[in-house]
Amino acid sequence: MRMDKVVATAREAVADVPEGASLAVGGFGLSGVPNVLIQALYEQGTGALSVVSNNCGAMESGLAVLLAAGRIARVTGSYIGANKEFARQYLAGELEVEMIPQGTLAERLRAGGAGIPAFFTPAGVGTQVADGGLPWRYDGHGGVAVASPPKEVREFDGTEYVLEHGIRTDFALVRAARGDRHGNLVFNKSTRNFNPLAAMAGRVTIAEVEELVEPGEIDPDAVHLPGIFVQRVIALTPEQARDKRIEQRTVSS
Which keywords appear in this protein's UniProt record, sorted alphabetically (predicted)? Predict the structure, then answer.
């Protein structure tokens, strides 16, 4: 493995992402979304993607760019939000969607990255999450074409738990505030949401960083994600690093 993992451009970084690949993508709402890598993937024309992410973009930003272009075939996530195109494609049967509890999604990504194939959790017991029947894909006429299967439920110390599987994906796209050439990453505040977990889950993880520094400039105690989980790093331009949208702007009276 190369110790210097810096790649010159986002286009070069995603060049080997094939049609039908699975992707774990960091971000929460508009916070910490790897927009530059997503845009490069869009310009490349890759489609039929299976995406694992908390949500699927908003305000024509992030994964919403790929979604609107019809490049996403399946989404595993926990929040649809105000993305009307997401809802339209889902109800029309154009998109397969696996909705799972947010904490379960986070742990499935972490478990996959840690080499844990499955785990038991109480979240979802007694609901369709465990019993099955959640609509993964509609038929476009109000019926359900594909429904979620039932999961194993087991009792431990008098409490029931449902079996959930760890998630591994072909690639992961994440955004960090700082990173060095070895791939060690630091995330700023709320951007440290799904980014470290998505990065762990990817077999090939690509990170866009707002500030690229030399190895040794990041205090080891300050590293949020060690470089062992990262294969490629691209440095954003100052303009790209400053381009951060606000989903809900509020001001005091």
Answer: Transferase
Q: Which fold has domain 10-117+166-242?
A: Glutaconate Coenzyme A-transferase (3.40.1080)
Q: What is the pLDDT of residue 1?
A: 55
**Backbone angle region of 29, left / alpha / beta, with phi > 0 → left and psi within -120 to 50 → alpha:** left
Give me the residue spans of the domains in the chain: 10-117+166-242
d(CA 10, CA 235): 9
Residue pair 169/52 in contact (Cβ under 8 Å)? The answer is yes
Amino acid at 197: L
Decide if pLDDT at 106 tops 70.
yes
Torsion sign over Cα 200, 198, 25, 135: positive
Give the helix ranges, DSSP H, for the chain. 10-13, 35-44, 64-68, 84-91, 102-114, 128-131, 195-201, 238-242
What predicted TM-score, i.e. pTM, was given to this entire model? Answer: 0.94
| Percent of the chain scoring above 90 in pLDDT | 85
Q: Which tokens sit at 52?
A: 């694992």
Mean pLDDT of 221-228: 97
To 5 degrees, how large is the angle CA 169–CA 190–CA 115? 30
CA distance 58 to 191: 16
pLDDT classification of 206: cutoffs 50, 70, 90? very high
Distances (CA, A) of 9 to 6, 27, 182: 9, 21, 17
